[in-house]
Amino acid sequence: MSQNTSPSYYKELIDLQDVEGVEAQFKSLLAVPIESISDLEKWLEDEKDLLFIIDEAMTGHQVDFYRNTEDADIKSTYLHDQQAIQPLLMKYVAKLNDKCCDSTYFTQLDDNHYGLMRRVRESKVKLFREENIPLLVKEQELCTKYDEIMGSLTVEWEGEEKPFPFIESLLDHLDRAVRKKAYHTMMSAHRQIKPDMDAIMDELIQLRHQIALNAGFENYRDYMFIEKNREYSIQDCYDFHENVAKYIIPAWNRLSNVFKTKLGVDKYRPWDNTAKFMKNPPYSDVSTLMDGVSEMLGKTDPFFADRFDYMRANGLLDLDDRKGKVPGGFCTSLPVSGDTFVFANFSPSFFSLIALIHEMGHAVNGYFQLSEHGPIEDYKGRSEVAELYSHGMELLLLDKLDRFYPEEEDFKNAQREELRRAFSMLIGPLAGDLFQHWMYTNPKHTSKERDEKYFEISKLYGLNPVDTSGLEEEIGMSWAGTLHYFQVPFYLIEYSISVLGALQILENYQNNPEKAVESFKKGASANYNQSIATIYKETGVNFDFSEPAVKQMGEFLEKVVQDIH
């Protein structure tokens, strides 16, 4: 089913081709005198309005490119933004930060409304170096190159050329021989692009290391902890890795043994690690998918379905799988339009169903924020918070998977699979986090060492119970298929942290569904100027990934799986 790909879903209220005109607006803002706290507050609103207008146009151009990487005009517009507007934006945002922080009235701003903004701006002033601007532009160019390669990646299957997401969907197939063939086809595709991916990653690591050195840090990992304004320490992350290895992985292994028995296999191989036991894909076309998800959301809360149906009617969903479209899925905000846009490129599968529900958790959160507080500035969008509502939405809809799996045994298998996904989201992202800690604290590593380290960490975590004999090279190079390593470094541990919160949402839902949904909505509407812990508390859960919390939620998750008879 073809979907509308016109740019009407976003507003283009500024001509980004007119670089001098854009610069003039920044210069005008910098020239405004600030002679009182009310002047500063007015100036902050004007600054926000300008940045939102630019952000929406650039976001629209980026999404257009992700939707069709093969259109030369769309690509040209997107590259212009990256090569001409992004450097300008970096330069003038730094000047705006200086003007704001240097103001006599900066420290007098109300802490409840501006406290987070003050802390973020002070961090940005600390990190900014003019010499990093061309490095950051080059970084974005390399990420664009990654998008182009992945967007054009196809595989041959039974004599036909297929988009890469198609082959990924076959890892759900009931027939083990089909899964095995799909796995090796995927690895073959990865092998073809591996030299390019190694070259891109090698250059990214050196660029990022130099960015950190220029800013006065020993390595990029330490730089990113300040850049992301994390409310926890590097040691907290290492402790989390260890706690999951101690409590979650043994439970994961026990669950994997159950799946191995059900599969009737002696050895649990990588193509069994995603095995689903439902008879068929949950849908055959995008329209059927959207009908069912709307119904599931409506049974949970009318507002959830209302937002989905609104997005569907207004071209704010692009869910087809097609050549030239970047793989994966995401939700992004359009601050001027007051909307959210969901992008997904998956073939029909259980995962694609869950991915859409996940992104709708982000979208619902975004609409609550827009209605309560207006558009979200970048500094407020902390991933530990955002991912709580996406993973939380998945688990709130756990009891409604019968909409796509009406047969009782399929329904139970779908629930088990979603809960197994919760296990995997506690483990896999932490493995990726540990991998990145290693990469950026050892920036002189070779591509061979990188593959070996990835295999080693994978074996300790998500592939712990899997027989990987003879596949060491394939697994070692499979990091190249994860966009986070390229485009959003150190954005992985947030998934695992938020899953612990989402499991608490599920526990609350089992005890009192109505109260749990109301708490979800309250937290999704919370003032994002608050700490992460406070926002979690408003959602009815704890922001806690200590050893006792990991142990408790691991036991809860395992019990929920066992309770599905």
3D architecture notes:
The structure is a single chain. The chain is mainly alpha-helical. It has a domain of 121 residues. The chain is 66% helix and 4% strand. It is built from 21 helices and five strands. Strands 3-5-4 form a three-stranded mixed sheet, sandwiched between helices. A two-stranded antiparallel sheet has the order 1-2. Strand 1 and strand 2 form a beta hairpin. The radius of gyration is 23 Å and the shape is globular.
**Percent of residues in beta strands?**
under 5%
Order of helices and strands: HHHHHEEHHHHHHEEEHHHHHHHHHH
* Cα gyration radius (Å): 23 Å
Low-confidence stretches: 1-6
* Count of individual helical segments: 21
Range of helix content:
55-70%
Structural class: mainly alpha
Q: What number is the mean pLDDT?
A: 93
Sketch the major β-sheet.
3 strands, mixed
